[in-house]
Fold this protein.
Amino acid sequence: MTDVHATISAADHTHDEEHTHGLVAHHFDDAQQQHDAIELGMWAFLAQEVLFFGGLFLAYLLYRFKYEDAFAEGSHELYLSLGTVNTAVLLTSSLTMALAVYAAKIDNKKSLFRYLLLTIILGLVFMGIKGVEWTLDYREHLVPGQFFGFDYSEHLAGRSPEIAQHVQLYFFLYFCMTGLHALHMVIGVVILAWVAIKAARAKTSLRDANFVEMMGLYWHFVDIVWIFLFPFLYLIKA
């Protein structure tokens, strides 16, 4: 009985200490419950994001198999080298984000700031490269709309209007999917910048570790989406 009372007393002491130091919000019993609740909320959010992107991927796959030749024609107009570089950039950012999560868990503010800053820079590099690619697409009339055409491409010259419409559908899905992905990147970078500023001012604590970990899940999700987008959009064979 003495051991049981001692265990309960130690647990109560830990519980009180966590609340006293602000590590646990008042509506949670302990740090583990708080972490589990936050993690469940993030996974629920990511689940609806999967459904959101899933609709676009489903539409893409349906039209991809229906208009295989036209989608291959559209894919050949993309800049594979830029897409490959961006893939490497995002994979590297996943590593720096994982290191930031670890730094947050051990409350190493300097390392947290350093790895968050690297992740942000890599995210900005990705968006910069994507911006260059979109600019090139625009100049070559690849953006669906009034000025969409194939006069810029020798191997597409003289193709039927039907093929042109199907290639335009490919680029419509391309800009929707990459645009939505870029929007998620922007949101992630802004939030990480806010945490990085707190870390630079030494205002983060172990309580922020949960938030950084959830942002890590978000960032990895965005990276995984690109891992699917890259082969779907850039590596189509004729």
